[in-house]
User: Fold Putative xylanase/chitin deacetylase from Desulfomonile tiedjei.
Amino acid sequence: MNPKTKIVCLITFDYELFLGRNFGPPDTILFEPTRKILDICDQVNVPTTFFADVCSVWAHRNNGCDSYADAFEKQLQEIVSTGHDVGLHIHPHWLFTTFVGGQWQISTERMYLHELGFGTHDHSAEETVRKGVNYLNELLGKQDTQYRCTAFRAAGLALQPQEKEIVRVLLDCGIRVDSSVAKNLRLNMDTVTIDYSRTPKNANWFLSPETGIENGNRSGIFEVPVATFQMGFLERTGFMARRIRSAGKLRGSVISRSPKQSRLTSLYSLLLLNLRYLFWNPYYLLSCDTKGMTLDLLLKGFDSYLQLHDDEVMYVSMINHPKLMFDEQVQLLGDFVRETRQRYGSEVSFQTFRQVAADCDCTQDLLKSSEISTNATRNNLEVYEGAL
Assistant:
């Protein structure tokens, strides 16, 4: 890492229910953990960004479950009013999920943005993103007239496949910043397949419909990856031991492609997720909500990620989920912020994606000005050479 590097850390939360089975009411799973998160963020004076799963609100409204939708919207307004940001997060399966006999009948055929298809038909990727952006702008613009939804995170971090089409849709709908890519992360599950092993060497870059994810562009959507890191064998062993000891702390289950979200299918999906920690040397996400993670592992992982880059300014994201955060994880978040400030001093700052979007617009304006200046110089040279 360049000793003069300025580090901009973005603390983020995917604001959502469990996608499989929820073991309690929404207040226990989402709203109360979020209140505790906001309290610790206030204590350590750190701004954050919540990526709101808007499809869950629409599903609850459409099925007459207004109490969840009301509480969801109220808390988002509180989040913005206290200086935090809200971005767009889309779990499309909610668009086709129904509430029958007091139970959610989960639809698993269309779980990711590309599975909605592209075009102007109902529930297409473009129509859903545009509806989500407009929904957040209308809801939160009442609380803050300067609010604009400019940031996006894909469900399951899955911009792939068809990432070029997805980037085009996001750009067309006004998204300026993305935080879906996690460098070197590879997953091959029944629910999702992603491969981020080939990305630009820069800490950040612009996504475009022409270059997609693997090659940077001079303009487009600014990518702020979720930081990733690896552990040694002994660290992984200790990590797994702590995970096993915390196995009973669950508020819900992961989703599978099975039409029925039974305990068996949920356990199978959870088993696959955990086996990769033990038998391979995977990349871990920088996150306080991962059971088994410690402050030492997070700090070492964060530093190792920074050391891989030599940019003068580096934007890096931490991903969390309120539904996964108990008191221990909330405290870990506060400790991470305090220790990071102590270690890096004035080199590190914490921002929201709203602030990053403003920085990106300035950067793109500078690049365009540079191109105009370069073209003008080139034209003047051509005129001069033609006169000789």
